[in-house]
């Protein structure tokens, strides 16, 4: 017992000392990495607020007069105050004031600087791929480093605190709770730290699902415009500007890159990387292969893609319906049992009274 207690306290103390040593040994480069991660977060939070406000304005356009005033209250105000806070925070960081930079990520960044081979691990590569989808190549590496560093930092500090609390319980002879904290608490800390990675993965998965749902409408409109005689670049721009959504936003970004005289191969390759779905990869590849062949062949290809996309959409809808039915089995059974109890209990009581 005493040997276990000493070993746990030693490991806890070593982890705590390591964490604080990493925190206070950080150089300016590490602080700048953390600051840049905050700036990236602010950029995308600001973009999300602006998109939300744009959606509200589009919805309010459907109403007129007093109805619009009432619905504006229902939908809530704009995000001006939140955007101003983000802008002030970004301005402070850019002026050299790093007080708003979270210190929790810094030990992890120091570890990544001292052990650069960690960025070649499978986990980091997967994280970088997901961040590339969400944030683009420009910001992906910085964001992936911050997420990975936060995971490392939280794991070291959390395990240290858990082991210290467990050793305290063991010291006052609460053996069962002490071992429970040591084992279960440590496992929970590791899972919570891993949730940093899992949250990015889940967000990227939801984004891919949204892109897949929007793809049939996009490719159908592209086919219609191209077959009516519009050139591909113009059809792409018109389709991108027609609606809001993840796929439309990526198309607008590609359209902006093409307008800036970026080579079509580079622009559409970036589009494939950001979307990371088989449908968009097939669309962009078809466009690249037929840039020099005119509208006739690309129009036929787009019609075929649209037909395949709608068939896949129907199959996906059927699979989703089957999954929903499977998930409803347990709630339906519980509801049936509760109704059965509500009927049988009064009946049994009445029969017992009659006897």
Write a structural description.
- The structure is a single chain.
- The protein has 355 residues and is mostly helical.
- Among the domains are: 2-42 and 98-173, no CATH class; 208-314.
- Helix content is 85%, strand content 0%.
- The chain contains twelve helices and no strands.
- It has helices at 2-24, 28-60, 65-75, 80-94, 106-114, 122-171, 175-227, 232-242, 246-259, 264-275, 278-289, 295-354.
- Helix 7 (175-227) packs across helix 8 (232-242), helix 7 (175-227) crosses helix 12 and helix 11 runs antiparallel to helix 12 (295-354).
- The protein is extended, with a radius of gyration of 28 Å.
- The termini are far apart.
- 26% of the residues are buried.
List the defining traits of the structure above.
355 residues, mainly alpha, 12 helices, 0% strand, extended
By oligomeric state, this entry counts as single chain
For the largest beta-sheet, the strand count, sense and barrel status come to: none
- Give the overall average pLDDT: 80
Shape: extended
**How many helical stretches?**
12
* Helical fraction: over 70%
Strand content: under 5%
* Category from helices, strands and their pairing: mainly alpha
Radius of gyration: 28 Å
Topology as H/E string? HHHHHHHHHHHH
Distance between the termini: 63 Å
Low-confidence stretches: none
Count of DSSP E strands? 0
Secondary-structure blueprint of this entry?
Elements (H helix, E strand, L loop, with lengths): L1 H23 L3 H33 L4 H11 L4 H15 L11 H9 L7 H50 L3 H53 L4 H11 L3 H14 L4 H12 L2 H12 L5 H60 L1
Helix pairs in contact: 1-5, 1-6, 2-4, 2-5, 2-6, 5-6, 6-7, 6-10, 7-8, 7-12, 8-9, 9-10, 10-11, 11-12
